[in-house]
Amino acid sequence: MKYIYLDYAAATPMDPRVVMAMQPYFSQQFYNPSSIYLAGKAANQALAAARSTVAQILGARPGEVVFTAGATEANNLAIQGVMWAYPKGEILVSAIEHESILAPANIFNHRVVPVDNQGRVDLGKLEKMINAKTILVSIGLVNNEIGTIQPLADIAKILNKLSNLRGPKDLPLYLHTDAAQAPNYFDLHMSRLGVDLMTINGGKIYGPKQSGVLYVRAGVKLQPLILGGGQENGLRSGTENVAGAIGFTTALKLANTKRLSEAKRVTSLRQLFISGLKENVPKATINGSGKYHAPHILSVTFAGYDNERLMMELDERGVQTATGSACSALHQTVQGSASSDEPSHVLAAIGLSEAEARSTLRFSFGRATTEADIKKTIQLLGGFTSYKK
């Protein structure tokens, strides 16, 4: 059976060019980059070149790029790193953040920034919530479940304005964004985003899983979570994963090169899917923002239908999709523990009832998605009428 994969927001296949770039560092060039002999120095130079490439794409300095084992580690380093450095401070997170933001935020003094029914942060409410104790604001650039884009540059302007009102002895005010879903389609240049910290995930950009980067603006004070030999400017000790860094960098470079053309192509696929739903499943409703949305993510509620049964029925017919975030099992939210049996906190935050949340599927598109894939999926969805509750 030829499978139609529509879960690119969960994971992307590795690009063959990424595999090729990584291959030598598993065998011939396996050396520890901290070694002082020539082969070790060569590995260190390759790592430095990768760091410089990432920095160039982000409009950053090489010293501001920290290689990590994926987005979860990067998010934890950003949040715990800042909050342990300023333990009397407070963090604000949006109500629709990924679990790897919500769980570490739960350790510290925190408050939740509400969103509207499209998943957008209210800038006025956010500004009013910031006080003298606020040290960190974490708002994801693209939501991984509903695809809503946040006005990050506008949020940065608010924080910059309020930060300028603080005295030299006051707490700093940092902005972090989880941009794991963004690099394939969006510009991540620091001067245009205005963030102090940013997370990127290699597993979402056709690179290796367990690879990623945390951008840390020069001057931001972080407490390291992993202690040891002081690698990654003292922020992440341990022998560097050179192959992972090379793979991540190659994937990011490829994503940045083709992001404009791919965004245009995938946007047309998303619109084709929506048009097909209107014609074949007219009672289906789209979640998220109609204007500020990522090209590749589409959250759809099929009222009166069980999303897990729909998902399994699609899977049996060769279409792979999701009921929500792949990382939601046994997650810890800022409200407390929650199991995978509970409906999505993202959908609840935008006003969906529990019944509606349990009737919602997420479709996400990628490089291999075709118009034929979309039409086939719509045809199958239109035929699933026997699963009414």
Question: How would you characterize this protein structure?
Answer:
The protein folds into two domains: 134 residues, Aspartate Aminotransferase, domain 1 (Alpha-Beta Complex); 239 residues, 3-Layer(aba) Sandwich (Aspartate Aminotransferase, domain 2), CATH 3.40.640. The chain is 37% helix and 14% strand. The chain has a seven-stranded mixed β-sheet with strand order 2-8-7-6-5-3-4, with helices on both faces. A hairpin with a 2-residue loop joins strand 12 and strand 13.
Annotation keywords:
389 residues; Aspartate Aminotransferase, domain 1; Aspartate Aminotransferase, domain 2; 12 helices
Number of strands: 14
- SS content category: alpha/beta
Overall body shape: globular
Unreliable stretches: 329-339
Portion in helices: 25-40%
**Radius of gyration from CA coordinates:** 21 Å
Number of helices: 12
**Any idea what the CATH architecture of the largest domain is?**
3-Layer(aba) Sandwich
CATH H-level superfamily of the largest domain = Type I PLP-dependent aspartate aminotransferase-like (Major domain)
Beta strand %: 5-15%
User: Would you tell me the overall average pLDDT?
Assistant: 93
Alpha-carbon distance between the two ends: 29 Å
